[in-house]
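User:
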Amino acid sequence: MSIFELDLRLGEYDTQTNIKIPFEIKNKYSELIIHFSYNPDKSKDDVARRQVEDALRKYDQADFASAKRLAYDHLPIDKLITLSLSKNGKYLGAHHNKSNDQEITINNETASFGFWPVEAEPADWELQLNCHCIASKEVEANIRIEAIK
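Assistant: Predicted structure:
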């Protein structure tokens, strides 16, 4: 059964931020399944090109003209948004990968890679979207949490 769902629109202003998403579980369940997806997963728009140009000037010490010319060689840019989870303020882990379609399971015996097993019980829970790199004018994201009795 679905116990939480949220649609988000993210943009370049969200790069290198953490978005906290609190949710409450009111009943005990045997397992939680967190579905997280976002699109598009790559970008070659003006925002991405500008970020590549800035990085080339900062780290490669390219001048303005050569950075503009070289930027196209590095497009498209992969977006990177990862998800972390906590329960009653205690960190439970993070799923750091480049997949734009993720499924994380948590129960008292096992959990997806990067997370600690924990009871799916009444508590104050919090997801965090760790927006490492958006590099796009707009990204649509969806979080859906299912609970298994």
